Amino acid sequence: MAECHPVGFQWVVEARARGAKVFHVDPRYTRTSALADKHVPIRAGSDIVLLGALVNHVLVNELDFREYVLAYTNASTIISERFQDTEDLDGLFSGFDAEHRKYDPSSWAYEGAREEAAAGLRSEQLEGGEEHTEAAGPDQYGAGGAAMLGKPRTDPTLTHPRCVYQILKRHFARYTPDLVAELCGISRADFAELADAITANSGRERTTAWAYAVGWTQHSVGVQYIRTAAILQLLLGNMGRPGGGIMALRGHASIQGSTDIPTLFNILPGYLPMPHAHRHQGLDDYLAEAGADTGFWGRKRSYMVSLLKAWWGEAATEENDFCFGHLPRLTGDHGHYTTVMAQIEGTVKGYFVVGENPAVGSSGGKAQRLGLANLDWLVVRDLTLVETATFWKDGPELETGEMRTEDIATEVFFLPAASHVEKEGTFTNTQRLLQWREKALDPPGDCRSDLSFYYHLGKRIRQRLSDDEIDRPLRELTWDYPEEGEHRDPSAEAVLREINGTGPDGRALSAYTELKPDGSTRCGCWIYCGVYAGEVNQAARRRPGREQNRVALEWGWAWPANRRILYNRASADPEGRPWSERKAYIWWDAEKGEWTGDDVPDFERDKPPDYLPPEGARAEAALAGTDPFIMQADGKGWLFAPAGLADGPLPAHYEPHESPVRNTLYGRQANPARKIYRSPAAPYNPPQSPRFPYVLTTYRLTEHHTAGAMSRPLSYLAELQPELFCEISPQLAAEVGVVNGGWATIVTTRTAIEARVLVTERVRPLRVEGRLIHQVGLPYHWAWGSGGLVVGDVTNDLMPLVLDPNVYIQEGKAVTCDLRAGRRPRGKALLDLVEEYRHG
Amino acid sequence: MAHGGWISRWPVIRQLRGEDARGDAARSARTDALRPRTEEADTVARSICPYCAVGCGQLVYVKDGQVTQIEGDPDSPISRGRLCPKGSASKQLVTHPGRQTRVLYRRPHGTEWEPLDLDTAMDMIADRVVRTRRETWQQEEDGKVVRRTMGIAGLGGATLDNEENYLMKKLYTALGAIQVENQARI
Asked: What GO molecular function annotation could you give as one example from this UniProt entry (chain A) (predicted)?
């Protein structure tokens, strides 16, 4: 965090100055470790063992925050008797279809809670074969899921053998300190210190927070890493409370915004799923599965209809399903890496790359470039000539003879982009905060904002339409924004106002609860409704922090409804009183009949703690006054996830796809549902291969950004970190025969790259399964172009195309490699070396 | 401030004479005459750092149509005026000489970039979108309506504004392009 989110880390330092204890769990000793109380080195790819052992430690010693757990989590819920655990099936959960490598989640359901609906869904998922089940997973269930409806059966004594609490105990029983020592390489003493610290620091009076970044997400079992942390935090009562939570430290200025208002294949704005061809013929079919009927997803019709009205305006009517039929349909995984495969196969003809650099920034760079070289046309928009724009004249495949410039038929348009100071608009930061940027000056030359580009492209496309039915969604699209300035840029504030939404009177709405299912409201992204409340750009608010309390509600605007801590109803006890004075945040004011406190309550303001839902209630009315997790169908924090995950209702430790270590916990070596490609463009290192004995993990440096297009051309930053290096221990350096400052070649089945050697005790070999495991750390900021003042080999070229099955994120943080002394071979000799390694 | 000739005002002499070496004695006449660029700016825009997702406040100083300085915004309750090495260097991000300001075009099989007028480029791109969409249009798959094109894909970075992502998703969806992805997945 000190390396990659330095200014955010000031708050950790400040907390430590006030007595907080800081642990840093990381394969490497970094600037974060230097400022922590304790650095705990871990073998990359083994975090579920560590987190699972912490869960087990809490359960075995009954250190959970029992009152919180009973009231606010699904610990007491009884699960279907058809459910079988990884302990029963040697590493599989019930419902695994070995042929398609997919789970049928119906046996994970709450007992009696529409198991048949989940089963029915299963048959629809399978319609059309394996491919179609891929888009039917987590993204289609929303945060609720069909298997969730109704009040589930519970056992408040937590003794029923099929209640979640008992299932958890059995599931995690073998996650012991001994196993942590064996698989993570963490000593029993270090584990005990960590376990004691987090449990002592949780409960009524204290809270513990976890922070993570892509070191947890870029794994073939990444989502389950976060799930394990969520289970731990729920057991300890650390969710929805000040100083608690699990902080996703996201890596880009508006990466959160890019998910909220997604340029992602599987969702529409506000996490509404994209419709699926085999399940969603009409709006009603779609809404039946777009999220739960109870909790705030119960208003999904209002969210969806308002979105359709924002996009198709007057053309969207009750009679035509509000133009739901205008939406294209998914039939499977259409994520980035699958799209690259489609480029190589020749299906994709035209490609827009906007502020992104997949040629060197995505895993498996060669596959990316093979895809780019097989397009008809490519549009690249960026500040500099990124490698994605120039691969045809200077890519590494030219040197090896795998490509020739004259043979590449791709037509390339490079359009220069406006920088962040040359346009106005909002970024959404890692804590869901929208902050408006004022425009400082006009962009130079042909540079334009992406807003301007897409607006004018849309206008030109609309001038080229026919009366054909396929053009109807474009003809009827609302696409008239006020134009400003010499270049007739569209007004960003007008777009933000459309995102916020308007009522029947045309005025800006102030809250998503004002959205209607009848087509009388329009809203481009329901979770952002309120950012333009009162016709005021709330994201532009700048009341200085020093003039406000610690929550600073008048700086920017956080979704939803300007709430700064999600699920903050949980900061009060079931009766609505703060758990302790020290941790008071939101509480029930019986006199006024409303929730009040430092933050905006993440709860209906006037719903009393003793509210009980009437029979048959829907949406938020179906949740009791003691149900803080208002987006969940049952209002509870899910220790056990009965739906919504592609690889199991509980986390289980699987080794990375490429690992030098055998999984001693289960008969399953790696995540059985992980996504792999069967293509020559996606080769893999065999597991436990002596040819690839070392663990390779990648990371960022403070002085650079991603693949370097925003940092390598800057002289200050280039000078601070001029060259690619690999970080290795003195023991590994001795084993391989390299010296500090010398050269090493790092090899996988994808390619070999060269880097300077940094020999340092910051990376320590770990004893795992009785032998020494060496780890190699590699930053990934270098490549050959982007106007960089410093250049180097491409780390991402080493990485495999293997993905988490829930979110299709690549496993970039734990793979295997070999390390050799000296520089890599040039030209065809490089291919020969890699070939030798492939066939050993 | 010391008085006398220039030699007696020379900081080294004053420091040797015993004045506080880190205080007034270290100041020269040139130091006194220096003014911060921020003071001379024509305008100051309140902005946000474009690197990581912490969202530090930035103040962008402009003089004569050029960015002259970018500083941390002390009002921000998130960053309290601080910036990291990247944020501190972000003036270079917008002013460095390697930045491209002209449209470039590479024709199929071409070996060099060629200049191209922006308007022409926009028309050419619109033509290609319309043509490719029509040529690759898929009304049905396996008897189900899909009404889409698998011939056009997009990948966006995560430094795009929300408003930009919104127009992109809206246009792509109306076009029937579903392979729309973002750094957020990568």
From this structure: molybdenum ion binding
Q: Where are the alpha helices (DSSP H) in A428-518?
A: 450-463, 472-475, 492-500
Q: What is the pLDDT of residue B1?
A: 43
Q: State which residues form the domain around B9.
A: 1-34
Q: What mean pLDDT do residues A625-644 have?
A: 94
Q: Are residues B150 and B169 in the same domain?
A: yes
**Among A254, A278, A454, beta carbon nearest to B144:** A278
Question: Percent of chain B beyond pLDDT 90?
Answer: 76
- The token pair that represents B169 in the structure block: 């998703």
Rounded to two decimals, what is the model's pTM? 0.95
Q: Are residues B106 and B155 in the same domain?
A: no
- Joined tokens for residue A429: 């930061």
Chain A residues in contact with B120 (beta carbon < 8 A): none
Reduced to 3 states (helix: H, G, I; strand: E, B; else coil), residue A815 is strand
Give the pLDDT confidence score for residue B4 in this predicted structure: 58
Q: What is the least distance, in Å, from the CA of B35 to any CA of chain A?
A: 21
- ipTM score: 0.96
Q: How far is CA B22 from CA A212, A416, B5, B33, in A?
A: 42, 47, 21, 18
Q: φ and ψ at A32, to 5 degrees?
A: -65, -45
Which range among A387-391, A563-567, B12-16 shows the weakest confidence by mean pLDDT?
B12-16
* Whole-number Cα distances in Å, A86 to A93, A162, A275, A638, A651: 5, 15, 32, 18, 10
CB contact (8 A) between residue B176 and residue A379: no
Tens digit of each residue's pLDDT (9 = 90 or more) over A258-303: 999 999 999 999 999 999 998 878 999 999 888 888 999 999 999 9
Kindly tell me if the per-residue pLDDT of A623 is higher than 80: yes
Q: Do B184 and A555 touch (CB under 8 A)?
A: no
Q: Do A277 and B104 touch (CB under 8 A)?
A: no
Q: Do A427 and B162 touch (CB under 8 A)?
A: yes
- Tokens 């090495």 belong to which residue? B85
By the 8 A CB rule, do A147 and A289 touch? no
Please give the tally of structural domains in chain B. 4
Chain-centre distance of CA A378, in angstroms?
A: 27
| CATH number for B84 | 2.20.25.90
Chain B residues close to A265, C-beta within 8 Å: 178-181
Closest in B54, B57, B173 to A328, CB measured: B173
> Looking at beta carbons, which residues of chain A come within 8 Å of B52?
4-5, 8, 249-253, 430, 705
CA-based nearest residue in chain A for residue B120? A413
Q: Do the strands A483-484 and A433-437 form a parallel or antiparallel pair, or are they unpaired?
A: unpaired
> Who contacts A337 (Cβ-Cβ below 8 Å, separation ≥6)?
A362, A363, A364, A677, A801, A803, A808, A810
Cβ-defined contact of B164 to A421 (cutoff 8 Å): no
- Dump pLDDT digits (tens) for A120-175: 343 333 333 333 344 334 444 434 444 455 578 999 999 999 999 999 999 999 99
Q: How far is B36 from chain A (nearest CA, A)?
A: 19
Neighbours of A534 (CB within 10 A): 10
Q: Which of B42, B43, B48 to mutate to test the interface with A (most CBs of A within 10 A)?
A: B48
Class for the domain spanning A675-839: mainly beta
Task: Render pLDDT for A568-604 as a digit per residue (tens, 0 to 9).
Answer: 999 999 999 999 999 999 999 999 999 999 999 999 9
Residues B142 and B166 reside in one and the same domain: yes
The CA R_g of chain B, rounded to the nearest whole Å, is: 27
Closest CB to B52: pick one of A128, A252, A703. A252
Q: Where are the domains of chain A?
A: 1-40, 675-839
Task: Name chain A contacts of B85, Cβ cutoff 8 Å.
Answer: 6, 702-703, 716-717, 720
Residues of A in contact with B47 (CB under 8 A): 420-421, 437-438, 440
Smallest CA–CA distance, residue B31 to chain A, in Å, is 24
Please give the single-letter amino acid code of residue A61: N
pLDDT category of residue A116 using cuts at 50, 70 and 90? very low
